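Re: the 419-residue chain
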Amino acid sequence: VSGPPPNVINYMFSPFGALTVNEFATNSPTVFGHKNAAGAHTVGAAFYGSTPECGTTPPVLEDFSSSGGVRILFDTSGARLDAPVVRQKPNSVAPDGINTNFFGDESFADPVGACSTTEPFPNFFGTSAAAPHAAAVAALLLDADPLLTPAAIYAILENTAINMGPTGFDFETGFGLIQADAAVASVANAGSVQLSATTYAVGEDGRYAIITVTRTGGSAGAISVNFATKSDSAVFRADYRGINQAVTFGDGDNASKTIRIRILQDTRFEGDERFGIILGNPIGGATLGSPRSAIVTISDDDSAPIGGVLQFSAPAYRVSESGGNAVITIARSDGSTGAVRVNFATMSRRATVGSDYTGINRDISFASGDTAAKTVNVPILQDTRVEGKESLVVRLAKPTGGAMVGSQGRATVTIMDDD
């Protein structure tokens, strides 16, 4: 053979043969090839009769089970790596020596002690017999939670295994002997977390909205879920104090949790307002149940103005540059006694008065008992310049006759460019 002498030679032989190594018997690692792949979960073997179930603690590794720690010297294209890569293999151990009716013979002794048996079935040994047990536990995990990723399954198998060697991982037994019951329990019984109702109600003078979060369907393991509020017609910091926090349940804890949301009192009539609450980001194996969102309604305790509430029908309007007019609607509600009026005015944002629209500043009147909506046409001016979207603001102010401007007293008008 020509060429320089190799620096590394790897050879393996069966311990069941008569071969004797007289030199370089380094007892080096033997997990190589696809078993040493980054995405593989590599399984060692322990005779089931030498496990805690049969009275042996810690479990005893089969002497033929492969050792990890093989150095990877080349990348997939054959180029030499700058530094060898050593992966954590094997990952875990599973039982072998189990009974079969299709393979092997009864020449091996059946276990004694707690698992003593005299049945005639042949026993199947080796990591080839152990790996299907690990695959079966992985299937049970997927049955308990179909959304588990391969990485999550591997982590569960490793985190719930019985340690067989030094604490944590070692290159002989990985993270230890797989425990099917502990692995499945870690995901199957964490339960679901949800709100107790889809709607909640509280008076403006009630100080707190009381929200209940429940855990059902299981209580294994410590879990948490995020609880957050979301503004709707009620305004954060003006009508309520928002919350964004974790709600936690301990291992075995299925007692309902109560969240108190501070409601802020004022003396202004606003009508009933509402905000949303939502659950998200479950941690610890729990799932989100139903309902996971709800609406909280704050009942106004202030008297409605005799002249009613005046406000725009929408918080935003849109019009094409060639549309002629932006049609703005003003509504009157919660009272109609007496004649009232309110000032309507336009204010520029990106749109320019005189070149993009014609400005307006005038009073809008409602007669006594009149609740019919009023419309104002804001003229939109066409041009040939490419300007993109532009906007202006319309606002209501200075109500008279016992009326008031509602929470929707401002609105944005967006002009869509057609050039």
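The chain has a mean pLDDT of 89.
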